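Project standup — Tuesday

K.O.: blocked on the structure for the chain from last sprint. Re-posting the sequence here as requested.
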Amino acid sequence: MPYYCGPLFDGKGTMGIKKIKNHKSLLVMSVLIFSFIYFFYDGASDSHVESDALVKQSNKLIKIESGKNGINQGGVSKSEWQGSSDYLKFINDLVVQLTQQHAHEIESVIVQASFQDLRDFIVQRYPQEGEAIFAYIITQAFSNHAVNILALIKNLDSYQAWHAQNLLSLNEMSLMERDGQVWQKRYEIFQGLAEQLWEKETEQKEYKQKLVQQTLKSLNTAKDMAMNERLYILKNTIEEQYGDTAQSLLINKGLMANMYFRLESVQQDLSEMSVKQREQALASSRRQLGYSEKNISKLAMQDEKKEKRWTNGYQYMQARDQLAVNFQGEDFRQSLSELRLEYFKHEAATIEAEENSGFMRYERPRIYGSN
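H.V.: unblocked you, prediction finished:
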């Protein structure tokens, strides 16, 4: 039985929190096809906040942490980045945008919870200063609510960390036992706001979409989990949600394999293996996905060809970099043309056209089991 990794049921068996966006519901299969590419951008499916009592308890801690980041309650920063025009333009644009879009609804805890996505985006862009910049932006845009928002997101982080750490054990429980554990944790962290934040979602399709996306997001960072355990959770989540529907006919092994092999945690495991170990791991995963032994052998032959192509490509890129050091202008172009012929033979013209367009084939991510 798969674990509810996304917006989980409330006490009445209904669905979870809605992301604050104006959009029409997508077709379920469109979401499944594209969710394995975009799942890591949807962080609001399990985003929730704590009660007023918990906010008050957290105020002191948030003030202390804000001070450490160079931000006080008046929104005045002591950090170096405040004096940079590049930072200030980014900050001011976001403050204006947030104020225009959310000032009328900022008292909504669901709106406040949605700012976790913004925090993650800013931290990704500015890894060192991101937390402080986010706190400063929130303070400037919503001075009367900033402390609550920052405390709320801190609790969101705590809940999601618990969720990821207990993913496998919860997955082994029955549905009733699992829901009981999940709700116990929600009340522990969010207290009186738990039921508000996991309010009904009237569309079953949206619920299933978010569940699969959150499962992928959780598995993406599950670095300490075995590969077969990740695949077990993904398969069972999809089968439980779509196994008894017409859409199940469209959820083929290839689509599920694409979702699975694109997980960062899976790619990290595969990249750390020897060639022989990787061959065995890929075969085992495909067997678990339901591929026949004949198809597993065919895919293994394709993997071997891809491995040789990537090895050749990496060697070419190293030689190309060395040419750039030793030659310039026409000499470099002529030498590079000869190098392409040496490494790619009849494909040299294709590689040249790609490079002239700005695309470097062997600088893109290597995805074992896929490309």
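K.O.: great, moving the ticket to review. Confidence is low (pLDDT under 50) at residues 1-78. The chain is about 65% helix and 0% strand.
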